[in-house]
């Protein structure tokens, strides 16, 4: 069969249909916008489906919950109805909790639920990364999203089926975690396939806002339907991610070669001329046949993946992976426990409702959006990924200390300090999981036809997700001893994360100080430090 027929088989059905009706192809720039939008929606839905467990914690374990008589935050009753629950309230869940989570060991069980999800997520990440570099990314991502939606929804069905068996909820979270592991390696690999290194930090910093947008939308969705039974707080986000999976199947081209483009990354010297040429051809003719070189890569079917060991020895992978371990430990503790912390903490002399706490916690992610963009911009401007990440992690320490110390004075101060903490905590987390992973996955030490983006991303984010699993678990035990102990753990984690990058930071400073040295000597220095291939924008 001809190469055109093979390409037609790989092209997403939605794009194939639109091209057939439209009669002409889109430009490279248009496809890139589509890639950014679809991967943004995809991973935002992944994060939205992870938020319900943090929202319903105080419903499962409401023993120390105190209600405020003031209007709920943030704007009167715009986001939150007055505290009156609907009549079909099963087993008086809101006042009595949900067995087995409403017992004396309730917070520990909630922590175990979180760690079960994240342990399967982190272990599945290593396998998912290699599979993502071997299989069709579009089909792989679609399967993961629909599977995630099914098992997140099944967790919520425990409410309607009146299930009070701990192992049911534990197993649903574990299987959901395995399916969720497909997401991050896949979306980073897709974006890395379509975008080169130029301004990668800024582009991916903006794109990485999907994490915070997903957290915010997941919190708002789960809180909005909480009055109708906590089960809906899982079913609605589950339906959202499954629907997004269908969208990905229909419209996401995982590789430029899948739709006829070749050589579109910054490793090609003619990137901009290629993009402009395609745009000119599209404007001049009603039907554009995309030029294929004789050595065109077959996109979804021809490249070979690399092994985990090969990926681990790429310079910089291990330090950034260990840094992300502690960075995600801090970030995911906020992700899973911040709404619970807010509902159990007196702020301005009042205790807020579960729904108010859920809505207020979204502002941490608002700060995270700004942090991801700022960290990406700074790392591009300074050409120093490690220095930027380490600086943000160090700044996160005083920001968390201030939040714990002064956040209870008033809601206004709590909001301000929460946004600042979110900026510094999520900034390096966003940078390492996006731009750094993509840089290392296209490292110059790789052989030309190797796929390493998903594998490297999986190693870095998989290691980080082990920390993400431990943080919420440890918090479940430490919170019974007081929240001061929890915040000490978070600050120590942030300090270790920054120290783990110290060698790479020194290498970046050494590289900058030798820029004025003649190129022959400069090349020698770069090879000695290993910093040039890792952190420079040159391929």
TrEMBL record:
InterPro entries linked to this entry: MFS, MFS_dom, MFS_trans_sf, Sugar_P_transporter
Record carries keyword Metal-binding: no
Origin: domain of life: Eukaryota
SUPFAM superfamilies according to UniProt: MFS general substrate transporter
Primary location group: membrane
Pfam families per the UniProt record, alphabetical: MFS_1
Ranges where the Major facilitator superfamily (MFS) profile domain occurs: 37-510
Family designation: Belongs to the major facilitator superfamily. Organophosphate:Pi antiporter (OPA) (TC 2.A.1.4) family.
Protein name (record): Major facilitator superfamily (MFS) profile domain-containing protein
Record organism: Gossypium stocksii
